[in-house]
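Record 1 of the preview.
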Amino acid sequence: MSSRFLSSRTLDRRGFFVLAGAAALATACSPRSQDAAATTSETVRMTGDGFDVTVPTRPTRVVVMEGRGDLEFALLAGYPIIATGNTFQPGARPAGQFDGLLDANTEVIGGPDGPAAEEIAALSPDLIVMRANGWRLDWYGNEQLTKIAPVLPVEVNEPNFEQYTVDQFSAIGLVDTVQPRLDEYHRTINDAAAVTNGRRIALITSEPVAKGYVIVWTNYLGNAVATDMGFTVLQNNPQDEEGNYRLSVENLNQIADAEFIFHQTTDPTQIDGIAAWQNLPAVAAGRSAVLDPQLNNGLVITATSFANRLIDVVRKAD
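->
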């Protein structure tokens, strides 16, 4: 058994720790045939910024709240997901990086604010998975949810997503399950070197442009992925705790050096009509591209999809 299951480790921005109980450690080290017989009486303690929870190591009926990074965690873990919310597109099956990954029998429940407690209770889950941010901000009513089933808050929107992946999945004895996805990510970014070659890019959110500003990314998952790929990301700052800053439309020339601009929005027409945007060299040259907002939080599946989006845009431009 690897010693990593026994150690508590601190991560950069959220101080995430994992503490595995004896039953969970036994499960983590047992053969797959024994795993199949594991029950929810085997538990693991997960602690971090604002939470300290004990959850089953091998749940059998899992509900996911938001349907983005929390859904990715549950999919990577191989949890039997009976239902998921989709706050991004309520009622629709989560798509994008999740195409083909969700079981056909998984229900999509809830609205733009996530599933209601009554909906969840009716499904009799033995585990509820949500983003740790949602737990810290009590988006869904933590007290009410914990009366239904144990809740697992997961860190899924950090630049250091690889370390969070390894630590969290080590805690539940499933790090080997996600290793193929990590290997795929590294193959993707290594293959990207031929097209990235230090090219300057800007990563922004253009959604709030009607309010007179855009949001420049300085330390998001996307920054980490683009840097791994070999891009030079304008305004990149791995030490920035905020992860972004507002840039007024009048000052868009601050990203004029970008050879490519990638902007997150649900409606690109909002910024297309802005003269200062059209005057940026990358935009004028047809080297701006929209980023799906679903790619703004997640783990290694999202990171790989993000990388593939950037590669696709650059290759087509060349």
